[in-house]
Structures are given as structure tokens and as C-alpha cells.
């Protein structure tokens, strides 16, 4: 392979003259920074638990059109240097220059540009696109490039493990190094012999599932001490492995254990102290299925499980029964996902080198073992004109710039192991992708779940990958084809023809999709003709990644291939504070659909109040589908997500990071059907999540002690019981009683709560007044207050009221100005939570899951230190309480929950505590940019 690669490189370099760079975004004679109005901002991040400041950097410099959210995330995540030192970066200019200048210098060093002027123009175009949020590199680039740290640029890794203890120990070590550096990895364990096979010593093998325990414990430890809080890893097993049934059941069995421990009183919530006692929780699991297996399931045939040592049949199972177990486990706990092996390898450009056996944690990077992939994503909304047109020319040129930069980075990048270094440099895998697809479709007036929406998405994806491979062929003529190309020329060309044929088969609807599809077909034809002459620089060009943190950096409304999360979102304001707004994509879509400005304002106002478009004034019912979202009143059906994945998959080198959410009412049969549909539609991988299928949900569940079992008494003679009738006696409050008044805001409603207590403690009276209320509502509030007060005086426990009224949902609802109760489902929900905090002892509140901000902070510290939290002996009297400053926290997911009255399964951010939102097959925090998986 090495000799042929050298000959190929020499042949292509014979005609090399370097790239001539064309001006696209910049203005001749004007530096990109000089076209922008820059402003200074203060970034102050507060701790959601107690309001303390956990990050502060004042006077940072950003363009005036960057949001507060993007500013905060870039400042806290990507600026290098210790805070309050001269080395600390303070301007976006410094960050972008650090990266862009490194790329330019490496491009000049390795012969990418024809002249120094071309190199300078390349740098300026790159700078312009980055500061205007046209695209972004993946997070490791921003972390490491241009710093004294190793120049790690890849976010995705695939490892390998063989059937030996040495190889397994290497796997543990390599995985740990990758986690420490803030990236994720995946591995296929199918080479490890089954637990029913013999060792050379004569004993029985442990099997791959047993070795997963050690790797899971390692990941759980390193995630706390490394650069990221959570490790991201994928574990895969082939469906013909003799231990496949044990592998399928691992996480579902652990979920049963979690339920049993929870019912026994252990803290098994997400991040709970006792959740660490269960296994396999740090990895995504996937089963690699073959066409043979799926056909056997379809036809009701048996299927052989093969030994790893000699390939002999260890067991024969009913294929349909095994597939049923796979679906039951996924239904129960969302794991394992499924990967379609034959489809994956049918689109493999380097099959002569080896098969694709594994993926990264989010399943979008699929290639050879011991390789890595660096990612970059384009902001699709930047190419949509106000008239609904798509700027094909600028999009194509932007893809050229990004692919060139990504390939340059491989030349100077550092990698965690020697094997990964050699293989990545030999095959040069890239992962260009995009974000804001859902926003683009909505702004274009196209439903996400529609043939028109899918065809436009497919055409854009085909154009992106077609241009990427055409530029890759041009790069091969300048700096040589990838080293492994000579050996893999035949399969690589075959896969390129498959992509081109898929582009030719597009059936676009409408003038925009037709224009994009025609250009895509043209690019594939030109790129393949050039590539067949001089090869390609890259064995892989594109993936669709989650685009979590970088999506917020680009101020994208939607991530990756996802639809919009919801029509309303939580927005931070420059001067501090926050507000709930309707996504700006909505009015743009309404104008594109032909609505007048007055109608746009009325519909937008309705959405702001209700969170959906149903019955919005003047909105035609046939346009409802344009505004369907991932969550909320009109959520997109699961099959709508799968069909979108199927539409774009033929135009992606790798695969798609996406989890298909299913309702809690979904059946095992529906999961089976979903996995079958994914296979038939040509997907490479698919994962599902059924709502509330996991115990460790973000919202705490009260853990009430079980009723003690009745003691078994010896049999005795029957006793005639004396019946005594008990009647409650009212205990009136004295004329002069201690009391407190609390002002509050829930959503847009303001009010006052007055609570009076007995001198010997205990709540005895409440009065509730809402601001701007009419006489009728005032009378109802007075009657309600009197009814509650009288009942309290007759002995009805306050805890009973709290249990009944807590979580009651109605408008007004939303964010509050109370630091202890950040979000409320209604005024009643807020009132009785506040009363619980002021008058109930800690033990009773713990059962209800009601804590003050300081208690939450103390409980968390105790958990982190491995100690037991001991509450203060007494609560300060109302007059002693010093009101804390309101904490500005929140997320779009929490806003959606408050509107719909339905809790999301998204986890809480480990860094800042706010509710995260879905991004591909992982989650991302809008507050600080932390992700639960790939960057």
C-alpha cells in the first residue's frame, strides 16, 4: 500500500500548482473585522443553586449582532488562559485569529496555496465566515488549536479491541486518554470470545459483557476528573455473537435494579448518590445487525450464533425472538440502538483495507478502526434569502473553504495514540455537516414532515457532500490523494457513483429545491470525473453531527438535522435578565407564506401566549404543519424523523446523530417496526427513546417511606371494639399573631401572599391577592383564602395542601422572581411551594422534593464529598430571613415545560443545573454550552 500511495502522490503532485482562492464573503481592501461594530460586554455566570458567581470576565469583545448566549458560551468554553491574568483571551478576534492564522500557516507550509496572496485571502474568508457565524469547527479546534496544548482537532474516535488481555487493557487506557481530552470514542467488542468458549488454559472465558464493567467504571471515574464532566462512549456487539442476548439485556436489567433500589428508598435520580452502584450507565449500546439476520426475522427463520475462535456454531436461536428481545430492551430503557452492518459497509470507500465495525458515541462517524474524524458544521439559515431563495453559489464556495481548512488541520494535528495518528493521516477522514435545517425548512414555509421538506433537505445535503468530494479531488491534484487511496481506488469510485446516482434520482418539489438538486447533480458529475483521474484527498467527507455547543456559538435555532424544539424559547438579555420570546423563524415563515404584517403580529402574539399555532387568529389550518416541532402541542410523529433521516442518508459519507423520540404509550411492536423501517429505508444506524422509560429523570420524585408491614399477632379471642366518634375542633388564632407578607411574580402575574401563624408555631391563616384583578377574581381569591385558613385551624395538615396543589398547571405560569422556586406551573403551585418552604420541617419537604437554593447546594456538596447532608436544626423565623438576589436561570426546555405542563426527559446540566435540550443523540445546555456527548 505504501509504495503505490507514494507513486500516486508523486503523480498528482507533478501537476500541483497550489489552490487559487476566490473572494466570496470579504470586501477587497477591507479586513473582515473592520466591517463589524464591536462592543464590550460583561460575562457573569451565576450558580443556579445559591446565586453565587461561578464565572466572571468583564469587558469581553464581541460583534454587536452576537447574542448574549453565544457570548457567554464562547467566553466560558473557548477563551484560553487563566481568568484575571494577562494571558487570558478577552476578544473574539483573539480566538478566531488563533485558529485561522494557524490554519493559514499550516496551509502554506504543506503547499496548499498557489501564492501568499491566496493564503491571505483564504485566512480572511475563514475569519469572515467564523465571526459572521456562517460555520464553526468542532469544539476541540477551539480548545486546542494555536495553544501550547497538543493540537487535538478531532471530536470522534473509533478504537479496536482484540481477544487478548493486553488488547483489552490497551482499550481501557486509550479510551481514558480520549475522555480526558474531552472527546468520545466507540468500539466493537465482537472479537472477544464468548463466555461459552474456552481459554487456552482450559478455563471458561469471561465474555465481552464482563469486560464492559471495567470500562464503564473507568469512564465513570475519568468523566469527573477530565476536561469534560461526562464521558461519551459507544459499545457495539455483532448480532451473531454468542453473548448477544446478555449484551441486549444489560442496561434493561440494570434499569430494573434501579427501580427496585428506588422503591427501597435509595437515591436513584439522575446524579443521585446511589445511582453509581448500577453498571453500564456511561455508554451507549448498539447491536450490529446483518441483512441475513433481518431477513431471517422477516421470514421467521432460525439464526446461528458463531464462536469467535473458529467460527463454529455455538447456538441457534429464533431470529424473530432475538429481535423481539432487542426491541423490548430498547422499549424499556432506550438501549440498545441498532446499526445496519451491510448498509454501512456497502457505502464504505476503503473496504480493501478493512470493514467498518464500529462508530463514535453518537453514531455519525463510521469508518475504520483506530481512526478519528474532525467535524465542522455550516449554518444553513445564512444561505436563505429573504425571498425564500437558497444561495447555491455561496454555499458551494463555503463548503470548499471549510473542507480545505479541515484537511489542512490533519497535517498539523496531534492524536492520542500512534495507531490513530498513522491511520488518520493515511485516510484523512473529514466530517462536514450542517445545523439549522429545521429553521431553514420552517422559514421556507415547508413542514419538516413533508415530501417537499425532505426533498429540499436531500438536495442541500447532496450539494454539500458533492462539493466536498469535488474539492477533495482538487486537493488530491495539489497535495496528493490520501495514502490509502491506491489500494481502495475501486471501492472508493464505486461509492462515489452510488452517491451520484442517488443525486440523479432526486425528485425535487418547487423552484428552490429544483435549483439546488440540479447543482448537486452537476457537482457530483464533475467531482467524480476529476477524482477518477487523480484520486481524492479524503476517504470520508461528511457526517451529520449533533452540533450542540457550536450550534449555540452560531446562534442556531435548531441543531444538526433536528426540527425546531418548540416555537417559544428562553432568551438572555444584554442588560441582564431574560425573557420568553417566539422564535424569529416563525414571523419569517409567516411572511414567506403570504401573511400580512398585521396577521403576523397577531399570530406571533397568540403563539407567545399558548406555545402552539392551533386556532391562531387568521392562520390557515393547512399551514399548521409548517410550525410542527419536536415537542409541544403538534409534535412531529416518530416516523417523520425517520423519513427525514432516510431522505438525507444517501448523501452522507458517515451517518446521522439523531434519536427518534417515541411517546410513553408506544408499544414494543412499534419499536420493532421502527427498527425494521430503518433497515428497509437504508439508514445506517437508528436509536429510539420512549418518554419516561428511565427512572433517573431530571425531576425529583418524592421518596416516601413504605408503610411498615403489619406485625403478625397471635390468634386471640374476638374483642368488641368501642366505637368512638372523633370530631375536629377549631383552634382559632389570637387577635395578635405573627405574620409575613411575600411579594411574588409568576410569569407575568404579580401578587402578595400573607401568612399568619400561631405563637407556638404552625401556619393558621393565609390571604392571597393578585395584582390587577377584577372584583370577581378578588372575591374568588378571598373565598379560597378563607376556606384554606379555616381548614388549617381545624387541623388539616399543611402538607396535605402542598401535596394537592403542588404541580397544579394553569396560566399564568413560568419563571418566578423567587430564588428558591425558579419555575412554577401556576400561581397555586408557587403559593404552596412557598408555604412549604416557610412552614414545613425539612423531613416533610424532602418527601415532597421541595428544597431551598442553599439546601440544594449543600445536598450537592455532600453528595460530591460522599457525606450525608444534615439539615440545620431550626429554620430562621420569617423576620430573620434575608431575601437572596434573584437568580437568572432557565432554558428553552423549561419554558416549553411551563407552557405545555408536561415534563421533558432532558437531563439537568451538571455544570450549571439548567434543563438541557436535545441535540442529535445527546443533549446540550443553553446556559453554559456543556454537552452530554459529542462536542
TrEMBL record:
Q: Where is the Ribonucleotide reductase large subunit C-terminal domain?
A: 154-689
Q: Does the keyword Glycosyltransferase apply?
A: no
EC top class named in words: oxidoreductase
User: Coiled coil located at which positions?
Assistant: none
- Could you tell me which Pfam families the record lists for this protein? Ribonuc_red_2_N, Ribonuc_red_lgC, TSCPD
Provide the E.C. number(s) assigned to this enzyme: 1.17.4.1
Catalysed transformations (reactions):
a 2'-deoxyribonucleoside 5'-diphosphate + [thioredoxin]-disulfide + H2O = a ribonucleoside 5'-diphosphate + [thioredoxin]-dithiol
Q: Which GO terms describe its molecular function?
A: cobalamin binding; cobalt ion binding; nucleotide binding; ribonucleoside-diphosphate reductase activity, thioredoxin disulfide as acceptor
Q: Known InterPro entries for this protein?
A: RdRp_reductase_class-2, RNR_2_N, RNR_lg_C, RNR_NrdJ/NrdZ, TSCPD_dom
Q: Which cofactor does it need?
A: adenosylcob(III)alamin
For this UniProt record, give its keywords in alphabetical order, as a comma-separated list. Cobalamin, Cobalt, Disulfide bond, DNA synthesis, Nucleotide-binding, Oxidoreductase
| Ribonucleotide reductase class II vitamin B12-dependent N-terminal domain boundaries | 43-133
Q: Where is the TSCPD domain?
A: 734-837
Q: One biological-process term from Gene Ontology?
A: DNA biosynthetic process
Q: Which domain of life is it from?
A: Bacteria
Database matches in PANTHER family: RIBONUCLEOSIDE-DIPHOSPHATE REDUCTASE, VITAMIN B12-DEPENDENT RIBONUCLEOTIDE REDUCTASE
The family annotation for this protein states: Belongs to the ribonucleoside diphosphate reductase class-2 family.
Q: What does the UniProt record say this protein does?
A: Catalyzes the reduction of ribonucleotides to deoxyribonucleotides. May function to provide a pool of deoxyribonucleotide precursors for DNA repair during oxygen limitation and/or for immediate growth after restoration of oxygen.
User: What is this protein identified as?
Assistant: Vitamin B12-dependent ribonucleotide reductase
